[in-house]
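pasting for ref
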Amino acid sequence: MPGEHHVFTDHLKPSILVAINTGLRRSELLRLEWTSVDFKARTITVEPQTSKVKKRRVIPMNREACETLMAWRRQVKFARVFTNEIGEPLREVRDWQKVKCEAKVINFRFMDTRHHTATRMINEGVAVYHVQKILGHKDSRMTQRYLRAREGKLAEALSVLDRPRTPETGDDSAQAA
């Protein structure tokens, strides 16, 4: 629209930002309708007909997901959140291969945005139960695989002990032993 400022040039950036901030599956993202986005409550409702497990779930939106969708909402006038230019449903996130190539990213599938979300939450200490509910996993065993990421953080935590002990750091544990 002439004279209007658009934050995004197409659906690509907002769809990726929403994906990495919500953990939505690609199919859930591409079937998402504006009626399922509640800006006041800051939630996205995944309806059973759009969910892989055929169960309704409500996902809270963090600040970035909410701001992204608010800006995108001002640009699009279709019932679905992510469509092509004439409002037809998308089957794929267009230009995904091109984006990966330009960003020099290899071996990254769109579904990896979901893995990224789960790993970030686990690494930040979010309870496995909450990650399971957000991702819509029926069984906690599916969510357990993300705990490997936390195990990497354990080694990182112990690596602080490799730093030299000096009087300036106030570390007198060597004297106490």
